[in-house]
């Protein structure tokens, strides 16, 4: 696994990879991560159900990431109830996900790789399977540029985020496999972003942090 922490600016390999997505760290930080957190903060209140902050942070994050990438030629795709963004070259997809406490932290520092906060449904498990190298090709490979009905065959990356008592953590990572319970727990590549200091005092008061996640209904493997 390639793991690169703090080297996400061009011309480093991580910076070049980020540029392939049409992204720069400052835009991800200010226009997506921090803004989604700030928009979700009013829902961290005793007036709202538990988990409202996490749900709103996820939903606003999807909206803001979509608004950031669509002018760059990315297209929104909601096939199989997964909120994907498809690259202009139609060869990769980007999905916003909530991670566990290991998110944004090196394996050496945390002691293991991060996992998704919740198990993934069948649609994302199929997509992650296609991320694995050296797998035989399908017999009915789609025509070049064809996405409809074939989104699980794109290389699927996660913008993995987490808010906890240490701050707002994030990484751009390529999932490699899920465990027997459906959690993503292995990665081919990880670009770790700096942990951001955000106002988490009220989150601690209400025990909120990250209780939201994507809409991808878990289905037990047959």
Main β sheet profile: 7 strands, mixed
Count of the separate structural domains: 1
Give the radius of gyration. 17 Å
Instruction: Figure out the total of helices.
Output: 6
Spatial gap, N to C terminus: 29 Å
Content of β-strand: 15-25%
Number-wise, the strands total 7
What pattern of helices and strands is seen along the backbone? EHHHEEEHHEEEH
Mean pLDDT: 82
Q: Which structural class is indicated by helix and strand composition?
A: alpha/beta
So what's the overall shape?
Answer: globular
Q: Would you identify the regions where 5 or more consecutive residues have pLDDT less than 50?
A: 134-145, 211-215, 217-222
Helix content: 25-40%
User: For the largest beta sheet, what order do the strands appear in spatially?
Assistant: 1-7-6-5-4-3-2
């Amino acid at each position: 696994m390639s793991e690169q922490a703090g080297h996400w600016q061009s011309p480093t390999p991580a910076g070049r990879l980020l540029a392939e997505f049409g992204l720069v760290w400052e835009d991800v930080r200010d226009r997506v991560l921090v803004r989604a957190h700030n928009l979700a903060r009013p829902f961290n209140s005793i007036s709202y159900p538990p988990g409202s902050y996490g749900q709103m942070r996820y939903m606003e994050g999807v909206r803001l990431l979509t608004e950031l990438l669509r002018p760059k030629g990315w297209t929104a795709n909601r096939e199989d109830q997964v909120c994907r963004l498809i690259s202009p070259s139609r060869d990769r997809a980007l999905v916003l996900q909530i991670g566990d406490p290991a998110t944004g932290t090196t394996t050496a520092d945390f002691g293991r790789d991060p996992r998704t906060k919740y198990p993934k449904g069948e649609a994302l498990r199929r997509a992650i399977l296609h991320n694995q190298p050296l797998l035989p090709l399908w017999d009915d490979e789609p025509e070049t540029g064809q996405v409809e009905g074939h989104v699980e065959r794109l290389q699927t990356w996660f913008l993995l985020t987490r808010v906890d008592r240490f701050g707002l953590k994030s990484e751009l990572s390529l999932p490699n496999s899920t465990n027997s319970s459906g959690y993503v727990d292995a990665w081919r590549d990880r670009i770790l972003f700096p942990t951001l200091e955000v106002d988490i005092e009220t989150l601690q008061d209400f025990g909120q942090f990250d209780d939201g996640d994507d809409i991808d209904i878990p289905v037990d493997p047959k």
